[in-house]
Amino acid sequence: MSTVYIPRHILLSVEKPARYVGGEWNSVLKDVHDVYIRTALCFPDTYEIGMSHLGMKILYHMLNERDDVFCERAYMPWTDMMSRMKEDNIPLYTLETKTPLNEFDIVGFTLQYEMCYSNVLHMLDMGGIPVYAKDRKQDDPIVIAGGPCAFNIEPMADFFDAVFIGESEDQLSKFSDLYREYILRGKDTFDRDGFLAEAASSIQGIYVPRFYEVKYNDDETIRSIRAYSQDVPDVITKALIIEPDKAYFPVNLIVPNTEAVHDRVSLELFRGCTRGCRFCQAGFVTRPVRERDPGLLLDIALKSQKATGYEEIGLLSLSTSDYSGFKELASSLIENTDGTNTSISLPSLRLDSFTADILEKASKSRKSGLTFAPEAGTQKLRNVINKNISDNDLKEAMEIAFSGGRNTVKLYFMLGLPTEDDDDIDGISILAHDIVRSYWQIPGETRRRKPEITVSAAMFIPKPFTPFQWESQDQLDELYRKQNYLRDKLKSKYIKFQWHGSKSSVWEAVLARGDRRLSKVIYRAFQEGCCFDAWDDKFDFEAYERIMSEEGLDISFYANRKRLFDEVLPWDHISCGVSKEFLINENIKAHSGVTTDECRSICSGCGAAAFGGGVCFE
Amino acid sequence: MSKYNITLPVSPNLRKNEPDITKVIRFNFSRRGALIYIAHLDMLRLFERALIRSGLKFVSSQGFNPRPLMVFALPVGIGVEVDNDLVEITFYGGPDTEQAADKLNASMPPDIRITNAHYEDRASGSIMAMVNSAEYTFMHKDLSRSVRTAMSGEVLNVTKGSKGKGGKVKDVDIKPLIHKLDFPDDNTIKAVFSAGSKNNLRPDLFLKALTTDSGFSLKNALDTVIIRNRIFLEGDHQVAEK
């Protein structure tokens, strides 16, 4: 057992050393001799981003409630710290006890976005753990992963011993129970493969990639994905918490010592989404909607606020207005924080007169800007993507916002959506100019400032488990053309145009629908020093392009190729509960511009009812 | 329509029930361990959150962005340990000072400890304006020799300002800001520097001055343990002769 010592001169020569020393309020310390299992949870991005993530906090506190587990945390050191650590041979360590990662029993990564993959490899390597799962020996940690990217883990399949599909609370508890059973039989005789096989066969949603064989056709597409043994499932179905009110939820949340991106109490209203926007992976893989009781949520919110000292409570969900207890919860939160400095933040809200009133009362500080996500510029295209928001809805929302004294509005759009033509891009511009005009139509005494309308355009990225999983992404030059086209149309001086890195969208599209052959590309990129790909100024697209071609792989095969419905997709052996037939049907409806109602109006039979709970049985 | 038909509890409005009397408590505190690496703004946030967790009824500023009325005598830099710094916080009513200290301690990470608390009832003025000097301890094995060499010169210049775009760089003589130097043993020096809003010598700047002339490496400077032993306010003590 060893403790890493980080010399003072290193900590004092890097940016924000508070990220590397631990000692946070509500962080957990245990005597390592008192526990059977030492687990390290890793977030493959900076401390500020990792400490904003609720899921990791839930698992951290949940595991530490157990007497037999001590769970610690590690984050990706920023580049300055990373090079200092490498120069001085300092291994990546956990913040609680400064123990190198390779001394843990279980090392878990949460994968929130594809662009963190190269960081995962750096963290393993810096932690002294063999990067490839096949190279790990008896006493190396079991390396696991979870999070949204677990649904298509194939590009990272070679690096993980086990992957947790779905919601991990129960899985991780059972996995820890089983691990304890195994080591109690004797640590020296620990049977790694035997343990992983039993975990995969007895715990829902646990996928061990090396137990499955992938075969390819001559045209590079996949011929088959089969389990080598009958002991593990042919299709791995995600795990989920069907009754969220009974799930573990921590109140004594860890509070960072330096500012995190989201530095507040996060209150998870429900899991899932009833809307079915056809580009949105989260909306499908988290089905069915399962709500939590507003009384319980209020209780959790007030207790967490007291236990953390946070002055902001943020409601968290995929669509806040769809929470059926929203009125009760929002009103009582506001009443209970009245007279204090605590403010309530309400993202993903549909604006009507009630919510406008709530917004007014919720924020204790200056009126902040409002954000809307119409995603597409015309009704025609919004029908294609099943974003059920009309021009009229937007117009009304703007009137409410402007007459309430607000002058800044941010609008999110996507470029490159299936069936999009230049008329749809014109639609974005028309919509933005209409909004500017509507600002000047409100009474003069309300308009104290000039309007500031921001149009933000992201690139469409086809994702697995969505009706658009077969679609092609626009070629890079077409994406540039569309960006320029839109920029030239946005003439008003009150409109600001922002767009996201197109090259990173292309690479994200490759990884999102990638197969196992990409593992060697990610490995080589890591060896060449690629890291922090999610950071535009660090991302090196040219390196990935070059490595792809050197490995005989083609970016457009993954990003720009339209798949046929009968092609075997790299994630076909994984199930999120939504059937492929449903997704095909949704794709066909999209191309005919037909919308699908949200779950509460009418059930469309997506398949998620098989889980036996949530909105399907309301 | 909501499927929930329940009444949720409502807590009483806190501010309306507060008594009008407010009192200022001055706390002495120390900081060590991991928390010496947090910046001054992080310290402010940490104290604010500890105050909220403590349940003590503190007074906030008015305006768009209300903050607790809380004033630190002297900001503390990253890497500096603290024996005995001062912060003044305004409370509603008059909480017992010892209880207030206990409650704050129970709400703080263990690396920060409140060591003393008393009412401060001067008529006006900020504690920041009252600071005139601070005592520091520096520890490093090669330090004493370098300091003796440095102090033997007429002046002790250090380059201030950034060399970046538009940054003005100038040499400043910090010798007049050093009021006292003791050498208890070969590895330790104790010093009293000017501190506060008028003249302030930061301990890391003092160490930087040693790296220019006296053969003390930058690595040594960064590795030198810095402890702020105490802050002197006006009237606390007579500044010693050089």
Mean pLDDT over the full residue set of chain B: 86
CATH class of the domain at 8-237 in chain A: Alpha Beta
Name the overall outline of chain B. Answer: elongated
Shape of chain A: globular
Q: What is the number of helical segments of chain B per DSSP (H or I, 4+ residues)?
A: 6
Number of strands of chain B: 10
Report helical residue fraction of chain B: 10-25%
Residue share in helix of chain A: 25-40%
Q: So, CATH architecture of the largest domain in chain B?
A: 2-Layer Sandwich
Structural class of chain B: alpha+beta
Structure in a nutshell:
The complex is a heterodimer of chains A (618) and B (242). By secondary structure, chain A is an alpha/beta fold.
How does this structure look, described?
Helix content of chain A is 34%, strand content 14%. Chain A is of the alpha/beta class and 618 residues long. In chain A, the strands form 6 sheets. A 6-stranded mixed beta sheet of chain A has the order 2-1-3-4-5-6. A 4-stranded parallel beta sheet of chain A has the order 15-16-17-18. Chain A has a 3-stranded parallel beta sheet with strand order 10-13-14, with helices on one face. The longest helix of chain A has 20 residues, at 422-441. Chain A starts with 7 loop residues before the first helix and ends in a 27-residue tail after the last helix. The longest helix of chain B is centred in the first third of the chain and has 15 residues, at 40-54. In chain B, 23% of the residues lie in helices and 31% in strands. In chain B, helix 1 packs across helix 2. At the A-B interface, helix 1, helix 9 and helix 10 of A face helix 1 and helix 6 of B.
